[in-house]
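agent> Task received from the user: take the single chain below, predict its 3D structure, and emit structure tokens. No templates, no multimer pairing.
agent> Plan: (1) validate residues, (2) run structure prediction, (3) serialize to tokens, (4) report one or two observations.
agent> Step 1 OK, no nonstandard residues flagged.
tool_call: predict_structure(input=
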Amino acid sequence: MNDSASPESDHLSHPDKYSDPRVRIGAGQLLMWGLALTLVAAAAAALSVYARRTSLGQTTAFFGPDTITALQLADRVELVIGPSNDLQTIDLTATPGLGHLRRAILDDRHYVWETETDGSVAGLADRPDSNVVILRFADPVGKRVPVTELALELSQGWIGPADGDKRVRFNDRVRPAIRHQIRMMAGSSQQNYDQRTK
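)
tool_result: status=success, residues=198
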């Protein structure tokens, strides 16, 4: 082949490469392909939404609808830590990662439901290796939900209503993530507070 040959001359010498008479694409075929792509995209979007949705059936039965609503809508979130005679309250409202914490608590799949038992989480505070904290959810602006408190035992991964007499454990994958998230958020909130007061 001549190096100086241009694509135009190649087109003229091999017209079958550019316009094969056996291939005919009409408006009907284009419409069919467009419809098929639209259906595949819609199915993929539906599957994505289904896979990412938060399952709330068992958590609603365990915590009650008011607690679920508070977890979803509360404007103010506080962490209460320390021994009962020297409690410290940390505001987590604008802390990064709060949405992840809410979703972790809400999702049915994050619990081992067979571990549900009678007895409060606060009752575990007497154990030497125990680390019980309280998450307080409030909605002072919208007043859509009452103040709701959840007790979490971070060492063993128990959670339950702070004023209740039942508890359940997080699963092995979520338990260390919850502990890490709360510690990180508490440190971040304290650091932000220290920077504001300077």
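agent> Step 4: summary for the user.
Helices lie at 7-13, 27-52, 57-63, 65-73, 98-106, 174-197.
agent> Done.
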